[in-house]
């Protein structure tokens, strides 16, 4: 059964929302139906593209990967990130969001925004686009903020985050992604909203959780954030399998007669 916007919103206070990232048709197909939401995140610029941060990925690259994921996903709700610089002002945001919607089969778009961009959220929603607002630690802002910094450590920050979430809810966002926010603050935000929250590094009281797949399944091992739980040692197991394959080839045990025409 296809997960719809109504299904996600009804999960509020009833059932946790599960979410994971995917960047291609192969992993989209593997994750499809196993989680409620698949996010085509601009995190692919780092985990897939090998770049230092998310800020230099293009809209065209996001569309390419989103198209691939959509080919592999039939049941899960699909959200795609708008990349840095593609929604700086309302006219540009509308043009690029519509372009992404028309080029793919996504269900919604996620944007990293502060309250001064609330008119952009309103305009996109008025155009009929389902929008998830991303607040807290926003990777697209790391150059301006001097790195990745946990949010909500002070009362001023906590109030700002709550006010932001409430403003985006009022503007029509269907949900809020809370990244890198103190757990007690994320809990307050979640309890104050009628729309669902999905957390990453923001504690267990959010309405759902998301992880980057390469973090969760052990394929990215250079650094492990505190909030990541590894469910699989992917890199180690894959390397072991590759070494066995190479050994079989060099020792002429692959292919055998049953594997030959």
Per-chain topology:
Blueprint: H1 5-10, E1 17-21, H2 25-31, E2 37-40, H3 44-47, H4 59-72, E3 77-81, H5 90-103, E4 108-112, H6 118-126, E5 131-136, H7 142-145, H8 155-171, E6 175-179, H9 183-192, E7 197-200, E8 208-211, H10 213-216, H11 234-250
Parallel strand pairs: 1-2, 1-8, 2-3, 3-4, 4-5, 5-6, 6-7, 7-8
Describe the overall structure:
Mg(2+) binds at residues 42, 81, 112. Catalyzes the reversible reaction in which hydroxymethyl group from 5,10-methylenetetrahydrofolate is transferred onto alpha-ketoisovalerate to form ketopantoate. Its cofactor is Mg(2+). One of its GO terms (molecular function) is methyltransferase activity. It comes from Helicobacter fennelliae MRY12-0050. The chain has 261 residues and is an alpha/beta fold. It folds into two domains: 3-229, Alpha-Beta Barrel (TIM Barrel); 233-260. It has helices at residues 5-10, 25-31, 44-47, 59-72, 90-103, 118-126, 142-145, 155-171, 183-192, 213-216, 234-250; strands spanning 17-21, 37-40, 77-81, 108-112, 131-136, 175-179, 197-200, 208-211. An eight-stranded parallel beta barrel has the order 1-2-3-4-5-6-7-8, surrounded by four helices. Helix 2 crosses helix 4, helix 5 packs across helix 6 (118-126) and helix 8 runs parallel beside helix 9. The radius of gyration is 20 Å and the shape is globular. The mean pLDDT is 97.
């Amino acid at each position: 059964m296809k997960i719809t916007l109504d299904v996600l919103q009804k999960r509020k206070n009833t059932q946790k929302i599960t979410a994971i990232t995917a960047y291609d048709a192969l992993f989209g197909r593997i994750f499809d139906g196993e989680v409620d939401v698949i996010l085509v995140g601009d995190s692919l610029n780092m985990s897939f593209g090998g770049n230092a941060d998310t800020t230099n990925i293009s809209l065209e690259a996001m569309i390419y990967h989103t198209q691939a994921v959509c080919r592999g996903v039939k049941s899960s709700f699909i959200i795609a990130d708008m990349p840095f610089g593609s929604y700086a002002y309302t006219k540009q945001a509308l043009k690029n969001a519509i372009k992404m919607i028309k080029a793919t089969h996504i269900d919604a778009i996620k944007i990293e925004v502060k309250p001064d961009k609330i008119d952009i959220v309103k305009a996109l929603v008025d155009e009929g686009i389902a929008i998830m607002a991303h607040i807290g630690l926003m990777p697209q802002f790391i150059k301006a903020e001097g790195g990745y910094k946990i949010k909500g450590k002070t009362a001023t920050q906590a109030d700002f985050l709550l006010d932001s979430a409430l403003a985006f809810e009022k503007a029509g966002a269907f949900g809020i992604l809370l990244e890198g926010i103190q757990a007690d603050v994320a809990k307050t935000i979640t309890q104050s909203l009628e729309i669902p929250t999905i957390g990453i590094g923001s504690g267990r009281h959010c309405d759902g959780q998301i992880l980057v797949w390469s973090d969760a399944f052990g394929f990215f091992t250079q650094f492990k954030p505190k909030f990541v739980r590894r469910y699989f040692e992917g890199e180690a197991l894959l390397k072991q399998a590759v070494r066995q394959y190479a050994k079989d080839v060099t020792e002429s045990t692959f292919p055998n007669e049953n594997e030959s025409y």
